[in-house]
Specification:
The protein has one helix and 13 strands. A hairpin with a 4-residue loop joins strand 11 and strand 12. It starts with a helix and ends with a strand. Helix content is 6%, strand content 54%. It has a single domain, classed as Porin, CATH 2.40.160.
C-alpha cells in the first residue's frame, strides 16, 4: 500500500511539474510546458527534486504557409526547503517553413515557487510563484520571443481520495529586450495574431493565463490526467480574445522514480494559436 501511495504521489508530481510550461515549457505552453503548470500537487519532504527531458511536435497555419515544429527541453527542479523550490528550463527547437528548417536554442526560463499553506496531511496546497523567461532564442527564426517575460501566478491543489483537482492562474507580461519597457503588442513582424512571440511560444504582450484539471490513478504507476487551459488577451487591440485548448495526458511509471509522459493538445475555440500538439517525455524524481 505504501508503494502504491508513493507511486501515485510521483505520478501526481509529474502531471503537474512539467512546465503546461510561460509558454515556454510545453507549448503555453510553449517550449517548456505551461509555466503555471510547473508544480506538483502532493509532493512530500522525501522528494528532493525533479529532472525531465520532453519533446513536443506541433503545427500552425493561417495567414501564411503551414509551419511545422518540434521543441525539446531539459528541466531541473530543486526542493530547497519544504516551502520553497526553484527550477531552470533549457529549451531547444526546430521550425520548418517552406521546406526549410532552423534549429537552435529557444528562450530559457527560471521559476521560483512558494507553498505558504498546506492542509489535508500536506496533500492539498496553495502555491504562489513567479517565472521569468529570457530572450535567448533567435526571434527571426521563430525560435524566441525577442523580449523578457514575467509570469506571477497562484494555484490551488485539492486532493479528494486518490484524485487530485487543481486550478492555476497567472498574469503574463512581456517586456522589451532593449530598455525593459512594456511590450506594446505583437513581437513577430508580419505575422497574424497567432504568432505573437514565436511559433514555439505564441502569446500577446499582456494576457491572463489559466488552467484547471484532474489527475486520476488507475493502477500502481499508471495515472491519467485531463485539463482545460486558456489565455485571454488584455491588450487593447484584441482585448477579450480567448484561446482555449484541452490536454489529455498519461503517466506510466517505469520504476518508482522514472516516469514516461504522453500528452496531446487540441484547440477548442475558433480563435487558435496552433492546430495541434503532441509530445512525450521522461521524468526522474530525485
Amino acid at each position: 500500500m505504501n508503494g502504491l501511495r508513493r507511486s501515485f504521489r510521483a505520478g501526481i508530481l509529474l502531471s503537474l511539474a512539467i512546465p503546461a510550461i510561460s509558454d515556454s515549457a510545453w507549448a503555453t505552453c510553449g517550449l517548456n510546458g505551461c509555466p503555471i503548470d510547473g508544480h506538483e500537487a502532493s509532493r512530500n519532504e522525501e522528494v528532493h527534486g525533479l529532472l525531465d527531458a520532453s519533446t513536443v511536435y506541433g503545427s500552425v497555419a493561417e495567414d501564411r504557409d503551414k509551419i511545422d515544429y518540434w521543441s525539446s527541453h531539459v528541466r531541473g527542479e530543486a526542493v530547497l526547503t519544504p516551502w520553497f523550490r526553484s527550477s531552470l528550463v533549457i529549451p531547444f527547437g526546430m521550425v520548418t517553413e517552406n521546406n526549410e528548417s532552423t534549429f537552435g536554442l529557444s528562450d530559457i526560463a527560471m521559476e521560483t515557487t512558494f507553498l505558504p499553506f498546506r492542509w489535508n496531511q500536506n496533500q492539498s496546497k496553495i502555491l504562489v510563484g513567479s517565472q521569468i523567461e529570457f530572450p535567448t532564442g533567435d526571434e527571426d527564426a521563430h525560435l524566441g520571443a525577442g523580449h523578457y517575460e514575467w509570469l506571477p501566478y497562484a494555484a490551488v491543489h485539492v486532493m479528494t481520495g486518490q484524485t487530485m483537482h487543481y486550478v492555476q492562474s497567472g498574469w503574463r507580461i512581456s517586456f522589451s529586450g532593449d530598455d525593459g519597457s512594456r511590450s506594446a503588442g505583437p513581437t513577430a513582424p508580419e505575422s497574424s495574431h497567432l504568432l505573437h512571440g514565436s511559433v514555439l511560444d505564441p502569446h500577446s504582450g499582456n494576457e491572463f493565463v489559466y488552467r484547471a484539471g484532474t489527475v486520476v490513478p488507475f493502477f500502481d504507476r499508471l495515472s491519467a490526467a485531463f485539463a482545460l487551459q486558456g489565455q485571454t488577451v488584455l491588450e487593447a487591440e484584441e482585448r477579450g480574445t480567448t484561446y482555449l485548448s484541452v490536454l489529455p495526458e498519461l503517466y506510466l511509471g517505469i520504476t518508482r522514480q522514472l516516469w514516461l509522459q504522453l500528452r496531446g493538445e487540441m484547440p477548442v475555440t475558433s480563435d487558435k494559436r496552433f492546430d495541434w500538439r503532441m509530445g512525450f517525455g521522461l521524468n526522474y524524481v530525485l
